[in-house]
Design a protein that fits this description.
By secondary structure, the protein is α/β, with parallel strands linked by helices. The protein has 2 domains: 197 residues, Periplasmic binding protein-like II (D-Maltodextrin-Binding Protein, domain 2, 3-Layer(aba) Sandwich); 203 residues, Periplasmic binding protein-like II (D-Maltodextrin-Binding Protein, domain 2), CATH 3.40.190.10. It has 18 helices and 14 strands. Keywords: Cell membrane, Lipoprotein, Membrane, Palmitate, Signal.
């Protein structure tokens, strides 16, 4: 789940603890840690109200199917920053942490530094690994141990406003490469005055996905490598779209996951956006005028052999080392997301592409819901064809947050927001600065 949208949802949710008791409450507990009715108390923190609701429902379903392992799940929805602050203090002090917690991908890189204060999910994952998207497990894996399980794959696609493109005589199915995309953008601008897209300078989804689709990264052999040819190629193309080709502009609000940009898309001022699958939820919720006017397509590529997708965003549900019953908590977390029935609910209730990909081709994924009514019933036909191409740039290395921060504070503002530096110069400058920081660690 994207951090900025998560913050927005969390602040709009019931701010602090929303507590639910999901088994008949037994007063008092035994020496085994169980309540008198045999149930076990577990606490869960999240920063998204919808994810809190998902786990409340999951706990009810768990209790029905696991009557001898019932749990009382107490769910707390906190603002993103507050959750991270409280969690950091609790993990460092050794007390006060929840049993289970949602940790955004970027924060996971920080939380997993040094000796992880989380419980490995490896044992609980054994029955499910073969049907789960490996790249999403890798995001939360350190030294062979997987500590978090994501809600979604976050498969990146390009969403086209077909109504707007048709007015310019453009067939989106003919767009196969970024060169094709650029030409289509020039035609669109000439005939309608509209932009083909907007570019993030306060977000990394576009740059990350265009780097990842080239099977590249910001690292090489564990060392920072932000000025490699693939990164330069991606940033140069984005820069050219704004300052040379004139088919794009810097994103209103800085990124593509805010109300300002939603309004631009909804008004038909922008013809496309390249974002992860979870962006479907944003379109359904915030762009009602585009219903039945948006096509989901593979990302254009730079050249033959590139991937047509990537992975974007992510939130891992993790079990802390302070959990009262770590084994039970881990078993519940994995079951809640990886069991077949629960994986369907991730799509039906949250609008995410489930990490369990073997269900993507089933009839149930085509059943009527808000998303199939908006985009059509073939959504997962497209995602399934791309599922073996989901490469993700490294986000959980301990130095990853430093790289992200530097690019967001310096590189993108100087090349996308303003034409202050060439992409090559900006990335060479970033490489020198980051290499020095990494060597001093």
């Amino acid at each position: 789940m994207n951090m900025r949208f998560s913050k927005k949802l969390a602040f709009g949710a019931i701010a602090l603890a929303s507590t639910v008791v999901l088994a008949a409450c037994g007063k008092g507990s035994s020496d085994s840690g169980k309540n008198s009715d045999g149930s076990t108390d577990l606490t869960f923190w999240t920063f998204v109200d919808g994810q809190g609701t998902f786990f409340k429902d999951a706990a009810k379903a768990w209790n029905k199917s696991h009557p001898k392992q019932k749990i009382n799940l107490k769910v707390s929805v906190l603002p993103f920053d507050q959750e991270n602050q409280k969690l950091t203090v609790a993990l460092k002090s050794g007390s006060g942490a929840p049993d289970i917690v949602d940790v955004e991908l970027g924060q996971a890189a920080i939380q997993l530094k040094g000796t992880p204060q989380y419980y490995s999910l490896n044992s609980a994952l054994k029955p499910y690994r073969s049907v789960l998207q490996k790249s999403r497990l890798d995001n939360f894996t350190k030294d062979g141990k997987t500590y978090g399980l994501d809600y979604h794959v976050g498969e990146v696609v390009t969403y086209y406003n077909t109504d707007l493109l048709k007015k310019a005589g453009i067939d989106y199915t003919k767009i196969k490469t970024w060169a094709d995309y650029t030409k289509a953008g020039e035609q669109l601008k000439a005939k309608t005055g509209k932009y083909m897209n907007e570019l993030e300078y306060a977000g990394m989804f576009q740059l990350d996905s265009m780097v990842a689709q080239q099977k590249a990264d910001y690292y090489k052999d564990g060392k920072v490598d932000v000025n490699n040819a693939a990164v330069k190629r991606a940033l140069q193309m984005q820069h050219d779209w704004i300052y040379k080709d004139k088919i794009a502009r810097s994103a209103v609000g800085g990124n593509l996951d805010n109300d300002q940009f939603f309004a631009e898309m909804n008004k038909g001022n922008v013809a496309s956006v390249t974002m992860p699958a979870w962006y479907m939820q944003r379109m359904v919720a915030h762009m009602p005028k585009l219903k039945n006017k948006v096509a989901i397509a593979p990302m254009p590529v730079f050249q033959q052999g590139d991937y047509q997708t990537a992975g974007g965003g992510g939130t891992g549900t993790m079990v802390t080392n302070q959990a009262k019953n770590k084994k039970l908590a881990a078993k519940f977390v994995v079951w809640a997301k990886a069991s077949k029935g629960q994986a369907y609910k991730i799509w039906e209730n949250l609008g995410f592409d489930p990490i369990r990909t073997d269900i993507w081709s089933t009839d149930r994924m085509k059943a009527d819901n808000d998303y199939t009514e908006y985009f059509g019933k073939d959504i997962f036909d497209i995602y399934s064809k791309l599922s073996d191409q989901v490469h993700v740039v490294t986000k959980t290395d301990s130095f990853a947050p430093t790289i992200n921060d530097y690019i967001l504070k310096n590189t993108l503002p100087s090349t996308i927001l303003k034409d202050k530096m060439t992409p090559t110069k900006a990335l060479d400058t970033a490489q020198a600065a980051l290499k020095k920081q990494q060597s001093n660690q």
